[in-house]
Amino acid sequence: MSEIPNSFTLDGQLVPFEPGQTILQAALAAGHYIPHLCSSPELKPHGSCKLCTVVVNGRHGSACTAHAMPGQDVQSDTPDLNGKRRLQVQMLFVEGNHFCPGCEKSGNCKLQAVAYDLEMLNPHFPHFFPQRPVDASHPDILLDRNRCIMCEQCVEASRDIDGKEVFGLAGRGLASHLVVNSPSGLLGDSALEAGDKAANICPVGAIVHKRVGYAKPIGARDYDTLGIRAQARAAAEGEGP
Amino acid sequence: MTQPTPSLDQVLPPILARHGNDPTRLVQILRDAQDQLEYLAPDTVTALARALNIPRTRVESCVEFYAFLHDQPRGRFRILFSDNITDRMLGNQALFEHMLKRFHLAPGQVSEDGLVSVGLTSCTGMCDQGPALLINNMPITRLTPRRVDEICDLVQSGLPLADWPSHYFKVEDNIRRAEVLLGSGFRSGDALRAALARGPEAMLAELKRSNLRGRGGAGFTTGVKWELCRKARADIRYIVCNADEGEPGTFKDRVLLQSFAERVFEGMALAGFTVGARQGLLYLRAEYQYMMPHLLAVLERMRAAGLLGRAILGQVDFDFDIDIHLGAGAYVCGEETALIESLEGKAGRPRIRPPFPVTSGYLGKPTVVNNVETLCKATEIALHGGAWYEAQGTKQSTGTKILSVAGDCERPGLYEFPFGVHVSEVLAECGARNAIAVQVSGASGMCLSPEEFGRRIAFEDVPTAGAFMIFGPGRDMFEMALNFADFFAHESCGFCAPCRIGTGLVQKMMHKIAAGQGTRYEVNEMLRLRELMRTTAHCGLGQTAGNAVFDTLQKFRPAYDRRLQDTDFIPAIDLEAALARARAMAGRDDADAHLGAQA
Ligand SMILES: Cc1cc2nc3c(=O)[nH]c(=O)nc-3n(C[C@H](O)[C@H](O)[C@H](O)COP(=O)(O)O)c2cc1C
Ligand code: SF4
Ligand code: SF4
Ligand code: FES
Question: How many whole angstroms separate alpha carbon B357 and alpha carbon B336?
Fold first, then answer.
C-alpha cells in the first residue's frame, strides 16, 4: 500500500493521479512511458491495440482504459510484457502492408517509433499481404488502407471532434477494414476536409496529406532524433508543475 | 423462373414502419430487408442509412460484420453445412462435396441461374442429430447421402421451401436424462405467483441463498447480479435472455426454448419483477430462427393468460413484456456486451468493461444478462426456495446442470446431472466406450484425456457452459484443434489486435502443420501466441482462442508429432508449385522449366 492517497506504484515507483484518470494518463503525466498506439489524449479511451497491457495487482489489463486507484501495484516495464509488446508490434506489421522506406510517414509514424522503442528487429511472422484498396479520390487527402492498423482514432475524431462521422470500421476479424461515409464509399465524396482532426490524427501513414512529399527530410523527422519514450518524458517535463 | 426483384420504394417503407424507424433495430431491419431483396446491395444500404438518419458506414459495418447478412447475391436457396468437429466426425465433408458436385459449384459460389449456393457455417447447434445444414435459415438434420440427393432434387425443382415436406425440418429434443429442470412438470404461472407472494426483496434473498451461478460460462452469482441491477440508480432497467448459444457443441438452450419456452419467459418476468424491469429482450441466434413462430405464439399465450403485459397476475404495478431479437450469425454476440451492441443495432464488438451491464447495459440502462438455463433455474428457486436449491450439487456449484452430449457415444442428447458428476459417469450413461478425449464447454473449453475422466463437472473443477463432445478410439485430436482454429479465426470480431491477428496466425500455422510443412518452430510459436491472446485479448473469445491448441499439444502430442518435419523450420512457400503459373503463361513444361528433384 502506498502512503499518499491518490497514488499507485508503477514498476515500484510512486505515481500520483487525479481522480478519474486512467493508469496511462497518470503515468504519462508523471513522465513514465507505457507503450501505446490506439489511445490519444484528445479521444475517449478505446482499448483495441492492447500494447498498453500492464499487470495490475496481478491481473492483466489495458492501462489506457483501467482507472487509476489508490495503492494499485502496476507492472509495465517487465521482460515478459515488453516481449509481448514486441510480438504485438510484429503482428501489426505483418497484418498490413508496411513498406516503410516508401512511406511519407516514415520517421513520423508511431507504429515505427514503438517498434524501435521495443527493439523490434524484424517482422518475424510470414506476411499476410492483404489486398487493400487505396483511395485517392479526395483532393487533399490520401487514404492508404495498406497501412491502417484499425486503431479507429480517425473514426472517433471525426465523430467526437469534427462532428462528421466520416469513417467507420466494417467487416470482422482480419477482414476488418476502414469504410468511408459517402454514397460511393469514396473519400472524395465525403465531408472530410484537410483541416479536420480526423485528417490529422492517424498514427501511421494510412491517412496522409497530398502534395507533402518529404518536406521534412528523413533524419529530421519526429522520432529521428528523440525516440518516442524520450519524447513522452520530455512532454511531461514541459507541462509538469 | 426468377421473379422481378421488388423495388426499394416498395420494400423498405413497410419494414421501416414496422420497426418504428428506430436505428437501434437496424439488425432486425436488415434481416427483414434481406428476406425480401435476397441481399443488401449498396443502394439498399444508402437508402436505409438515409431513412434512419444514420451514417452509411454504420449500416455497411453491420452488413459486413454478420455472417448471415450478404452484400452480394447468394442464390434463392442458400445452403450452409454446419461445420463443427462433431459434424465432421459424422461425415459432413463428403456430403458437402457431394452436393457441390451435383450443383457443379465451388464452396460459396452462386449457380449461374441464381438458384443456389452451398457453403459452410459454424456449429448450428444440432450436434446430437448431425450432420446438419441450414437452408434459408431452416435446419435440416440427420443428413445422409440419400437425404442430400433429395434436397438437391427439391432445390432443382424450384419448389418453394415452405412447400417442402415438413419431416425434413423436424428437430428432435433427445432428452436422455432428466432431473428437476427437464423432468418435473411445470405449471405456467406458478413460479411468478410464488415470487409475487414473496415480494422482490425476499425473492432476492432466496436467490442469494440458493447460490445459483450463471450457466452461460462465466459462472457469476445470479443473486448478486440481480441485486446490483436492482440497486443501480435508473428510471428504466432491462432483462436480456442470452440465447445466442454459439459455443460449438452446445445445444441445450435450443431444447429449452423449443420445449420449455414458458419456463424461460417466466424466468425473465421473474427477473423483471425482482430487479424492477418492465422490458425483456430475448436475443435468439440466427440459427434458431426456425423457432420464431413457436416462441411468438408462446408469448401470445402468456399475454392472454395474464403472465405478460400489464398488471401481471393482477398486481397493479407489475408490467413486463418480452421482445425477440434475432442475431445474424456471429459467435462473439454471445459475449454480453457484444450482444448488447447487437441489440442496439450495431456490429457486435465487445465494449470496454467496466462499466458492466448491470449498471450500464442496453441503451446505457442497468441490464441483467442471463443465460436461458439460468433463467429456468431461477423459476425453480421461486417455486421451492433457496435452501431446497442449495442442497443439490456441490458447495460452490449448486443445483443441476444440463450437458449437451455429442460425438462418439450411443445416445447423444441432453443429460441433466447434479453438479459434481464425474466425467466418467457421464460417459457411462451415454454409452461412450473407450473414449480417448472429452472436450468440455466447447471450442473455448478444456480438453480432457482419459487420466482426467475422474474429474468432476463443477465450477471448482471442470467448469462448463454445457458442451460435452466425446472422441472415441482412432479419433485424431489434431483435427479437432484445427477445426477450432478455423472457427476462432472466422469468429474473431477484429476489434483488438492480439485476437484479430493472433487467431489468423494460429490458423495459418495449423494448416501448415496439416499440410506436412510444420516443424517444432510452429508449435512453439503457437504456444507464444496463445499466451499473448490469453493475457491481452479484449474479451473471452480471444482469451480462450488458443486453449484447444494448447490442451491438445499438452495431452495429444503424437497427433502433432506425426505431422511435423524433423527439422528446425521449412518455409510455407513451395517454389516448384509457385512456378506453375509462370510455366502455364509461357506454355512450357520441359525439364528446364522445373526446379528439379532437389527442390
Ligand atoms: C465469446 C463469448 C461467447 C459467449 N456466448 C454465450 C452464449 O452463447 N450464451 C450465454 O448465455 N453466454 C455466453 N457467453 C457468456 C456471456 O458473456 C455472459 O457471461 C452470460 O450470458 C451471463 O449469463 P449467466 O450469468 O446466466 O451465465 C459468452 C461469452 C463469450 C466471451
Ligand atoms: S486510418 Fe489511421 S487512424 Fe484510421 S483506423 Fe486506420 S490507422 Fe487508425
Ligand atoms: S478478443 Fe477477439 S472477439 Fe474479443 S474483442 Fe478482441 S478481436 Fe473481438
Ligand atoms: S493504447 Fe491501450 S489498448 Fe491501445
Answer: 8
> In sequence order, what are the beta bridge partners of B401?
B417
Rg of the Cα atoms in chain A: 19
Q: Which domain holds residue A223?
A: 84-227
Among chain A residues, the shortest Cα distance to B504 is held by: A174
Q: Is residue A239 part of a domain?
A: no
Task: Give the ipTM of the model, two decimals please.
Answer: 0.96
Phi and psi torsions of B246, nearest 5°? -95, -10
DSSP class of B20:
T
Q: Does the N-terminal peptide bond of residue B131 adopt cis geometry, omega within 30 degrees of 0?
A: yes
> C-alpha angle with apex B77: B73 to B82, nearest 5 degrees?
100
pLDDT tens digit sequence for A66-106 = 999 999 999 999 999 999 999 999 999 999 999 998 899 99
Choosing from A61, A77, A93, the residue where a domain stops is: A77
Vertex B264 angle, CA B23 and B470, to 5°: 100
User: Which of A54, A77, A100 corresponds to the end of one domain?
Assistant: A77
Distance CA B169, CA B214 (A): 31
Q: How far is A220 from chain B, CA to nearest CA, in Å?
A: 31
pLDDT for the residue numbered B1: 39
Read off the pLDDT of residues B21-75 as tens digits, 9 standing for 90 and up: 999 999 999 999 999 998 999 999 999 999 999 999 999 999 999 999 999 999 9
Q: Which of chain A's residues have a Cβ under 8 Å away from the Cβ of B525?
A: 125
Residue B578 near chain A (CB below 8 Å): no
- Check CB contact under 8 Å for B56 and A181: yes
Three-state DSSP at B585 gives helix
> What pLDDT digit, counting tens, does each position of A137-186 carry?
999 999 999 999 999 999 999 999 999 999 999 999 999 999 999 999 99
By DSSP bridging, strand B413-418 and strand B175-177 are parallel
**What's the pTM value of the predicted model, to 2 decimals?**
0.95
**C-alpha cell of residue A84:** 509481448
Do A62 and A150 lie in a common domain? Answer: no
| CATH at residue A104 | 3.30.70.20
Q: Is the peptide bond before A203 cis (omega within 30 degrees of 0)?
A: no
CATH of B176-390, one of 1.20.1740.10, 2.40.300.10, 3.40.50.11540, 3.40.190.10: 3.40.50.11540
Cβ-proximal residues to A168 (8 Å cutoff; 6+ apart), any chain: A155, A178, A179, A180, A181, B55, B57, B58, B60, B61
Phi and psi, residue B262, nearest 5°:
-55, -40
Q: Which of B331, B536, B574 to mutate to test the interface with A (most CBs of A within 10 A)?
A: B536
Pocket of ligand 3 contains residue B534 by CB under 6 Å: no
Query: Domain B400-471 belongs to what topology?
Result: Ubiquitin-like (UB roll) (3.10.20)
Q: How far apart are CA B480 and CA B225, in angstroms?
A: 35
User: In terms of DSSP H, where are the helices of chain A?
Assistant: 23-29, 79-95, 110-117, 153-156, 222-225, 228-239
Q: Which DSSP string do the residues of B507-573 spell out, in sequence order?
A: HHHHHHHHTT---HHHHHHHHHHHHHHHHH-SSHHHHHTTHHHHHHHHH-HHHHHTTS-SSS---S-
Q: What is the DSSP letter of A157?
A: I
